[in-house]
Amino acid sequence: MDIIKQNRVAWDKKVEDESPYTKPVSQEIISRSKSGDWQIYLTPTKAVPREWFPASLKGLNILCLASGGGQQGPVLAAAGGDVTVVDLSEKQLASDQAVAEREGLSLKTVQGDMADLHFFADEQFDLIVHPVSNVFAKDILPVWKEASRVLKDKGMLLSGFMNPVLYIFDEEQDDKGNLVVANSIPYSSLDPLTDEETKAYIQAKHTIEFSHTLEDQIQGQIDAGFVITGMYEDDFGGNRALDQYIKCFMATRSVKMKPS
Prior knowledge:
The protein is α/β, with parallel strands linked by helices. The chain contains eight helices and seven strands; from the N terminus they run H-H-E-H-E-H-E-E-H-E-H-H-H-E-E.
């Protein structure tokens, strides 16, 4: 199973299907961003606190990691950042390029895997923005290590990710509003499927998702050289049954600290 290839194809299909996570930002949002009134999202409904960012983005080298779709990257570019977007999906990156051309923004795109940033030099970036996307990586520890490698000393990593509790519930029952515990963590969306169901799942161009333990999400960042300096939680905006019981998204602000 080539997970990277499957998720690349699946995200291209999501663009074709006009998934909410593939819809580029409007001209109005870019116009406001150019005037200093900007915000981005790492999770579905809650904007990243402005105090998590430097007072100005001008001159900052920013990496939007696994963050294609014409959303975070163009906003940060309009706000003055020198932005590079990395994503598996060619069509997601095309959305960033389209917004940049539409709005006269300078923005670079690179097609690649979030866990392998070999095309970047060590300590190249001041800031990494990494919205909920490591759910599509089988192992997230390489993601944190690569983020640390390409960040400058005291550089910031802003990450959104899933609370693994979401994945203990049967997805089909969850869609019906019923919370039925069926899975253990860590978990893959292929785990409950038979061989025939797996074949059909792949042919339908669905994404393969992976839950990750909170230890890998939090301690994994710390082990990669980060100090976590902020966090918040978020939910699906009332669109899932679990929203009434717990928030299933979280975001962290981390600073790379080189050993003294």
